[in-house]
Amino acid sequence: MLIVVVVLALAAIGAGVYAFRQRQGKEQLEAELNQLAHHDRLTGLPNRSVLEPWITECLAASRRHSSRAAIMLIDLDRFKRINDSYGPSVGDELMKAIVARLRTVLRPQDKLIRTTGTQFTMLCPEMPDSTAAEQLARRVIGAIQTPFQVEQDLISLNACVGATVTDERLSDTSSVLLDAEVALYKAKDDGPGTIAMYEQSMHARLTPANAGKRLEEALARGEFQLLYMPIISLETNRMTGVEALIRWLDPERGLVSPSEFLPAMDETGLIVPVGEWVLNEACRQAVQWQEAYPALGPIEVTVNVSARQLAQSDFLDVLTEALRMPEGVRPPQLCLEISEAALRDDLETAWTMLRQAKELGVTLALDDFGTGSSSIKSVRTFRSDVLKIDREFVKGLGMAAEDTAIVQMMIALGKELGMVTVAEGIETTQQLEALRRLDCKRGQGYLFGHPVPPQVIEDMLYDIATTRAQPMVPSTTNLPQRGQPAAGPAEVLLPEGIQPAPTGLPAGTAAEIPAHSPAAWPGSETEVAAAAAAAGRAALAARAAAAAPAAPGAPADAPPAGAIHLDAPRPHQPQPLMSPRRPGVAPATGTVVPPVSRVPRRRSELAS
Questions:
Q1: Torsion angles phi and psi, residue 314, rounded to 5
Q2: What secondary structure does DSSP assign to 560-585, as a single string?
Q3: pLDDT (tens digit, 9 = 90+) per residue, 109-132?
Q4: Nearest-10 crossing angle of helices 51-64, 173-190
Q5: How many helices and strands (H and E) does the chain possess?
Q6: Cβ-contact 332, 500 below 8 angstroms
Q7: Contact 113, 51 (CB under 8 A)
Q8: Is 483 left (phi over 0), alpha (psi -120 to 50) or beta?
Q9: Spatial contact of 134 and 196, defined as CB atoms under 8 Å apart
Q10: Are strands 238-250 and 224-233 parallel, antiparallel or unpaired?
Q11: 130-145 vs 88-105: helix axis angle to the nearest 10?
């Protein structure tokens, strides 16, 4: 009996020990899993999962002490080259050494988080002011810049710091973090070793941190507008078409460079709804021009298309809808312009989509030819109708033999493949004459005119229509698409001092265009629009005063035969860009932002 009791007691003790060890093992396992989930394996620092809760705690602690808090983002510069040169094991050891140095800079109440591979966040509660935060940031930069001993080498590193200092009222964690990110991008733009303290004006800059929000706000306010740049036949000096270019007129910054906002649009995906709007607006505008001035022939409008747009499964539906017109109205003459960069990733898929677009009667243009890594392959596979020569090669014409030889080769290639060659970025008469000698067909650039609002293009067409002596003889230089009959393009006056190229057209085919033509004016895009208003009013007022006497029996105020009535309704009302459509939400109506949109309307002003 005693033996049974002892055995049962030992069994109970064993079961208890086993259960204790099981619980202990489970707790230890949970602790290890928690450590792995919330800490960086290499350095032991907390990872991004704790960032927002800790920022909230940091802000709360600062408010309790009626003080401020500083949030600093530290980004290591070109750390990847260490891994590439010395191997990942050396890079890991160097990262541990960097963290050890950063720990020496921390105050007792500060916290350090490794948010990404080469980026850290410092949370600094109870920060006296911005000056103290900047001093701490300088110590951080100094600690990283001190050379590290790696094997037999001394390695120098650098970093950028973006910091924001809060006040007692600011408690929004996401806003504080966004401010610090904006400051970091400013520091990175300024170069390695730079510290940027957040300022309210920094939000005007477009950065990856604020791009989505800024662009959506600009779209909702209607700050984007389409401008049009003339494309000129170098053989006849006539305008064969225009290129539609989207511009952002920011109320605070003025005209924002497309090289700044277009990549951000593409990255955020806004390029898709914006591109759809551009297609529809450009086609609508082209139809209104050709309806208003049918004797001038169709004006080809070129629209840029991005790789992201081509990747959309409904791209052809969007294109078909843009080209759909009421019965009896001729569809616009549309050219889709695709850069080599858009074709680089998946040329075959892009070409399959664009081949179907050609079946809709659309012309295709290959942009920036010569700048990509697969130019010849693009030309071979992407059978375009137009080959656009990049401005980088055009600007060296007449000065660099290499550029001249390259452009000559491109023009010869285009001619052999049956493509129309268009030179971009023509700014001097020297470049123009060189392109003519090389037999380039078309050109565009500031020598002919800056991108201008649609009203200015219409004023150019109005000048042409009201001064024409007789209908234009159709020209073979305007090729809407291979194998289709060409239509006569509109004329445009070249800047003063530029002589037309020999055309072989009968004398008196078209009247001389007034010297006040908007295409002849230099200046910025905004200045061109303003000049168009002033000179246009003066030219038309003089023309109206000198009008020929009316025919016998006609009213005294009747216009000359064949002239366009000055009080005829203008075909265009500028359409601001709407915000992207969202399911179930009506798009907000934007407003056209001055001064570009305030180009006076010649005929309506004269009529009034």
A1: -100, 20
A2: PTTPPPTTSPPS----PPPPPPBTTB
A3: 999 999 988 999 999 988 888 899
A4: 110
A5: 20, 17
A6: no
A7: yes
A8: left
A9: no
A10: antiparallel
A11: 150
Q: How many angstroms separate the first and last alpha carbons of the chain? A: 123
Closest C-alpha to 75, from 36, 122, 133, 111 = 122
- Asked if omega into 595 is within 30° of 0 (cis), the reply is yes
**Tens-place pLDDT, residues 412-469:** 999 988 899 999 999 999 999 999 999 999 999 999 888 999 988 988 888 877 765 3
Asked if 344 contacts 376 with a C-beta cutoff of 8 angstroms, the reply is: no
Domain assignments of the chain as residue spans, ordered by start: 48-209, 214-372+449-476+513-544+564-608, 385-447
Pairing label, strands 195-197, 158-165: parallel
**pTM listed for this prediction:** 0.59
Q: Does domain 214-372+449-476+513-544+564-608 have CATH number 3.20.20?
A: yes
- The superfamily in CATH containing domain 48-209 is Reverse transcriptase/Diguanylate cyclase domain (3.30.70.270)
What does 238-257 look like in DSSP terms, one character per residue?
A: EEEEEEEEEEEEETTTEEEP
Q: Rounded CA gap, 315 and 347, in Å?
A: 16
Q: Are the folds of 48-209 and 214-372+449-476+513-544+564-608 the same?
A: no
